[in-house]
Amino acid sequence: MGEGSADRGRAVRDRLLLYAVAGAVTAVVLAPLAAPGYVLRYDMVFVPRQPLTWDLVAPAQSLPRAVPMDAVVSLVTQLVPGWAVQRIVLAGTVLLAAVGAARLVPTQRRGVRLLGAVGYAWTPYLAERLLIGQWGLLVAYAALPWLVRAVLDLRAGRAGALARVVLTAASAAITPTGGLIAFGVVALLSPQRERWRRSTVAVVGVAVLNSPWVTAALVTRAGGTSDPAGVAAFAARGENWAGPLAALAGTGGIWSAQATPASRALPLVPLVTLVLVVLAAAGVGLLRRRLPPGISARLVVLAGAGFLLAALGAAPGTAEVLRWAVAHLPGAGLLRDGQKFLAPYALLLMVCAALGVERLVTRVERVSREVAGVVLVGVLLLPVAVMPDLAFGGAGRLRPVSYPADWREVAGRLADDPGGEVLALPLSGYRAYSWNPGRIVLDPAPRYLPAAVLTDDTLRVGDVAVLGENPRLREIRGLLEDGRPVAVTGVRWVVVQHHRANRVDPATLAGFEVVYQGMFLTLYRNPSVPPRSVAVSPGQWAVVAALGLAGVVVVAALVALRRRPTAW
User: Fold this and answer.
1) Is-contact 172 141, C-beta < 8 A?
2) Is residue 389 within 8 Å of 395, Cβ to Cβ?
3) What is the DSSP code (8-state) at residue 10?
4) Which spans in 196-264 are helix H?
5) Which of 78, 420, 439, 6 is nearest to 259 (CA)?
6) DSSP notation for 527-553
7) What is the pLDDT of residues 439-468, one digit of tens each?
8) What share of the chain is helix, strand, coil (3-state, %, to 5)?
9) Which helix (H) or strand (E) holds 428?
10) Considering only CA atoms, which of 69, 71, 68, 76 is closest in space to residue 49?
11) Of 459, 504, 462, which is closest to residue 486 (Cα–Cα)?
């Protein structure tokens, strides 16, 4: 009894220490979010209450890059204000990434687990995706170690494991990339002769969780192909003298220089990456011995596949193949920004590196326990020392701001007189507002305004313009280039955003009347277009059915988990 109580007490202390360290990392990374307001940066757009519109659930004329993420946020913000949702999501992402990675490291040594926690929560991958605002992808990144652990429990026949697999995969599947990663994990790791029924159910369940965005992609009028110019624009980028493959080896290499911490350009970074890879190689043997037979090899395959996808477009000879695929194969556009798929590699790298440090420390302990302790602490702090500018919101790049009152006023006018499309001018998918100083953000109008909002889907990366897929926007863009009024397109509303109002040709607004004029926004109405109810296409109903089916799977998992209490 005494030994059992001591073991339980030690386990509790270890868990409390782990959560304390993970909480400290979270607080350091997201410190600026203690201030009120919304962090608006690149793809990260939260609004006070996101309306649930058909275009967010099932975009009719654009690719479903944010399905079902936008629908989930819309539902949640009906109950919880957007500023709180943003903080819960970001803090939960960093905290759970750290805890999940630590618990996945197969070791009894407290310090080694803490190394896995800090390493996985302080990667260039997390930093770069955070600074580019892709929080949905980071949710999948945080869910990944928990999903791997749940699949291992499923293989071991533990109670509630199937439900945990489905629930964890559901959080990853809020974005298409996260859903594909989750499907790959379950499809590769779960198959087992002895429990083939459970593994089949798990694979089918995760496939169903991906059905909302797959269905939306099948029914959209945007088509499934993309501009091949995006291959070069979104290819992995070298961050220092060592080039793009070395950047990927260190879990970095995102295509946007503005989303890269400045410390990644330091000349010593590739050498640190080399040390990390060597430590990981040293830890593979321990991983193989401590995991069930064959699992470590499958994890290596999963990580290798993610690395290869990340290198597409950057490795010699692959760019032309990818350009052809993007232009001719529906859905291949998902591979343009291949660095997104690096998450499984990042997880395996950090878990194996932690085990490699365990081997190193064990040898040093034979000489001196004090020196071994110093080595462990030094390696624990190495990720922070090499990339200190992730701290405090990427050295101050994540700062909350408040929306001007104009946004609330325009949203209220549209809610009082619903119906018809809203065109956001000047045409630009990303905007730099004076009230969000120094930061570029995806136009908030589609998420803030209770209407179908048309915003430019052309993405400019340096001097390269990557054309979007929306046929309606192509029509409107052609009219604007010809200097013709957009009233002829049947658009009922126009919102002019004044940060670039001088670029809106007055001839464009011929036939419109001013409904509201503020310091930052002006709302125009086309009196020749009467209000009309929003038409719902059969394709949109198909997406709703897919969302419902995915919801049923999640609810079933929750019920199963409740009936079979189990520790996470």
Assistant:
1) no
2) yes
3) H
4) 196-209, 211-219, 229-233, 244-249
5) 439
6) TTS---PPP--HHHHHHHHHHHHHHHH
7) 999 999 999 999 999 998 888 877 777 877
8) 60, 5, 30
9) none
10) 76
11) 504
Can you give the length of the chain in residues?
568
Q: What is the pLDDT of residues 51-89, one digit of tens each?
A: 988 888 888 778 888 899 999 999 999 999 999 999 999
Residue 259: is it exposed, middle or buried by C-beta count within 10 angstroms (0-12/13-18/19+)?
buried
Q: Radius of gyration of the chain from Cα atoms?
A: 25
Minimal CA–CA distance to 168: which of 216, 205, 214?
A: 205
d(CA 375, CA 22): 20
Q: Can you tell me the mean pLDDT for 18-36?
A: 97
Question: Which residue is listed with tokens 């009230």?
Answer: 435
Identity of residue 264: R
How far is the C-alpha of 42 from the C-alpha of 239, rounded, in Å?
20
Structure tokens at 557: 């998992």
The 10s digit of each residue's pLDDT in 269-298 is 999 999 999 999 999 999 999 999 999 999
> Model pTM?
0.95
Residues 6+ apart with CB under 8 A from 251: 123, 124, 125, 342, 345, 346, 349
* Cα-Cα-Cα-Cα dihedral sign, residues 167, 173, 178, 179: positive
Residue 227 has pLDDT above 90, yes or no: no
